[in-house]
C-alpha cells in the first residue's frame, strides 16, 4: 500500500517557478485520492453559457409562440419561409447540377480545404464579382458556410462587447441574433415604406456614436424586396464616410432584381469607406441547402490594414470552412449557368409579386408595397380597421386558423402592423392565397369613424 507524506516545498520548483507551501504526495508520486475528491465538490453543476442564453432568433421566438392550427377544410399555404425550393416549382439549372456531379466524380474534393476556401475557388468568385471600380483577387475572398456565416464572421471581426451596430428596420432578424449573443448593441435605423423602403438618412445619422462599429445595409432587402438607386446608396455611403464607419453590405439578393430596375453593388460606389460584401449561391442559383457563401473584402485605401483580414482568417479557422464539393463546382457554376435561367427566375418572381400586389391593393385595410427584387412583399395592416386583433401577430395567427394561409408577422422584423409574403410559391397557389386573405379581411374589416364620415359625405 502507498503511504502519503506531507512535504514542505520551499525554493525553486522543477519548472523554475519559486514555490512555497505544503503539498500532499504519495511515495509513488500519485496524488492522494481523498485530496482529488476534495478539489471539486461532488455535484452536477452544468449550466448553459451566457452566450447561448443571449442567443435568440426573433422569428423563432414569435412563430414558436403562435397558435398555428390550420383550417382542416383548406389545404395549408405557407407564405412564410424564405426558401425558394419548398414547393418544387423553382429547381436549379441542370448545368448547376452537372457541375456538382463532376466535382463529386473527380474525387478531388473529399478532403479538408483551407479554412478560407480553395485558392482556385476563391479566384472563381473574385473573377465573377470583380467590377471596374472594385476589382477583386483571390486574397479578397473568404468562402463560408452560407451567407449567414459570412455575416457572422463580419460582425465578429468588427465588433467588441459594448459596441453597437446599425441595422435596418424592418430588417433580417439574424443580425440581431448574432450581435446580441456577443454583447453587441443593435441600433435600428428606419426604412420608409412611403419611399419604397429607402433609408431615413437623418435617423440613421442620429444613432451614430463613438462605439458604432459598423453599418449594415441590406440591398436588395429581406423582408422588403426594395432595391436602392445608385444615388441613394451614395448618400448612405456619405454618412458612413463622414463618421468613418465601415459597411457590412448584405447583397445575397443582388442578382435577384426585376428587369425594370438595376442593382448597384456598394463597393464600386465607395471611394474611401471599406466594405465587407456578403453573398452566396443560395438565392440566385436556388440552392440554399448547399451552404456556400462568401465575404468580398473591398478596402482600396487599406483602412482595414492587415488586422481585419487576419482576423477574418483566424475566425474562419474556428470551423473547417465551406463544403469542399460545392467549392469544386463553383467555377463551372459561374461559367456555365445559362443567362436564361437567371431571367426565368426573376421573371417568375416579378409576375407573382404583381399578382399579389394587384390582388391585395384592392383589399380594404391592407396596403401592400410593391417590391423591385428579392423574394418578398410587405403588406401594411390598418389595425384600426381590424379591432378584433391586438396586433400583426394576432392577425396572422387568425389568418392561419381560418384560411390556412401563413404569412410572417413583421413584428419578427421589429416592424409591427405589417406582414411579409414570400412570392416564390406556384402562381395558382399565390392567387388562391390572395383570395383567402381577401375573404379573411372582408369578414373582419370594420370601418373607422373617419371612414364612415367619408362615406356619408
Automatic annotation (TrEMBL):
Protein name: Tyrosine aminotransferase
Annotated gene: TAT
Enzyme Commission code(s) on record: 2.6.1.5
Any one Gene Ontology BP term: L-tyrosine catabolic process
Pfam families: Aminotran_1_2
Cofactor(s) recorded in Swiss-Prot or TrEMBL: pyridoxal 5'-phosphate
Quaternary structure annotation from Swiss-Prot or TrEMBL: Homodimer.
Organism: Denticeps clupeoides
Enzyme type, top EC level: transferase
Amino acid at each position: 500500500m502507498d503511504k502519503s507524506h506531507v512535504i514542505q516545498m520551499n525554493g525553486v520548483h522543477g519548472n523554475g517557478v519559486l514555490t512555497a507551501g505544503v503539498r500532499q504526495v504519495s511515495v509513488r508520486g500519485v496524488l492522494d485520492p481523498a485530496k482529488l475528491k476534495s478539489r471539486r465538490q461532488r455535484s452536477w453543476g452544468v449550466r448553459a453559457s451566457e452566450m447561448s442564453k443571449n442567443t435568440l432568433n426573433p422569428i423563432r421566438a414569435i412563430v414558436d409562440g403562435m397558435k398555428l392550427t390550420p383550417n382542416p377544410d383548406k389545404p395549408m399555404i405557407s407564405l412564410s419561409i424564405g426558401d425558394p425550393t419548398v414547393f418544387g416549382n423553382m429547381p436549379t439549372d441542370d448545368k448547376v447540377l452537372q457541375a456538382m456531379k463532376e466535382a463529386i466524380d473527380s474525387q478531388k474534393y473529399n478532403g479538408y480545404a483551407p479554412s478560407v476556401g480553395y485558392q482556385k475557388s476563391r479566384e472563381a468568385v473574385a473573377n465573377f464579382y470583380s467590377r471596374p471600380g472594385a476589382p477583386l483577387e483571390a486574397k479578397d475572398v473568404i468562402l463560408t458556410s452560407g451567407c449567414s456565416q459570412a455575416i457572422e464572421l463580419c460582425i465578429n471581426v468588427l465588433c467588441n462587447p459594448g459596441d453597437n451596430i446599425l441595422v435596418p428596420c424592418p430588417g433580417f432578424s439574424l443580425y440581431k441574433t448574432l450581435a446580441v449573443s456577443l454583447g453587441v448593441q443593435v441600433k435600428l435605423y428606419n426604412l420608409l415604406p412611403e419611399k419604397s423602403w429607402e433609408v431615413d438618412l437623418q435617423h440613421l445619422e442620429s444613432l451614430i456614436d463613438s462605439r458604432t462599429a459598423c453599418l449594415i445595409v441590406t440591398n436588395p432587402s429581406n423582408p422588403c424586396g426594395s432595391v436602392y438607386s445608385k444615388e441613394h446608396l451614395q448618400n448612405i455611403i456619405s454618412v458612413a464616410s463622414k463618421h468613418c464607419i465601415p459597411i457590412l453590405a448584405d447583397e445575397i439578393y443582388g442578382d435577384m432584381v426585376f428587369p425594370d430596375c438595376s442593382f448597384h453593388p456598394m463597393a464600386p460606389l465607395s471611394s474611401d469607406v471599406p466594405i465587407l460584401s456578403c453573398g452566396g449561391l443560395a438565392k440566385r442559383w436556388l440552392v440554399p441547402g448547399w451552404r456556400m457563401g462568401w465575404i468580398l473584402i473591398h478596402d482600396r485605401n487599406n483602412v482595414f490594414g492587415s488586422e481585419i483580414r487576419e482576423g477574418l482568417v483566424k475566425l474562419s479557422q474556428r470551423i473547417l470552412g465551406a463544403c469542399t464539393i460545392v467549392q469544386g463546382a463553383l467555377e463551372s457554376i459561374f461559367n456555365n449557368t445559362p443567362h436564361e435561367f437567371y431571367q426565368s427566375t426573376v421573371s417568375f418572381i416579378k409576375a407573382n409579386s404583381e399578382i399579389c400586389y394587384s390582388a391585395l391593393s384592392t383589399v380594404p385595410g391592407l396596403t401592400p408595397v410593391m417590391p423591385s427584387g428579392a423574394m418578398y412583399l410587405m403588406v401594411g395592416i390598418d389595425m384600426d380597421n381590424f379591432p378584433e386583433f391586438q396586433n400583426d401577430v394576432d392577425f396572422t395567427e387568425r389568418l392561419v386558423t381560418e384560411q390556412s394561409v401563413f404569412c410572417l408577422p413583421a413584428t419578427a422584423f421589429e416592424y409591427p402592423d405589417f406582414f411579409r409574403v414570400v412570392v416564390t410559391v406556384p402562381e395558382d397557389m399565390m392567387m388562391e392565397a390572395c383570395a383567402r386573405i381577401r375573404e379573411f379581411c372582408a369578414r373582419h374589416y370594420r370601418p373607422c369613424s373617419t371612414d364612415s364620415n367619408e362615406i356619408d359625405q
